[in-house]
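Appendix B. Chain record.
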Amino acid sequence: MVGLDTVVVRSDAVLDASVGDDTVLMSIETGQYYTMKVTSRAIWERLATPVRVGALCADLAEAYQAPLETVEADTLAFLNYLETQKMIERRQQ
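Structure tokens predicted for this chain:
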């Protein structure tokens, strides 16, 4: 399970492309397609390089002027979903 101290990065097995204001992802392993909109797209862009989840949440809370606790809960849920879909990988801290 992804936590605030976990370092994550995009999986190399996922291709992405910008389509208008969205980002479309395709898992090479499963052939599944996903569409990322505003906030999920911002998270995906930040996962281009390894990032500690707690730092990611702090950046998002500041950028969107949202309560940190809300951002943490929503981001953790999203990242855990991405991990179950093999779209992100954990890295050593």
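Further analysis of this model is presented in Appendix C.
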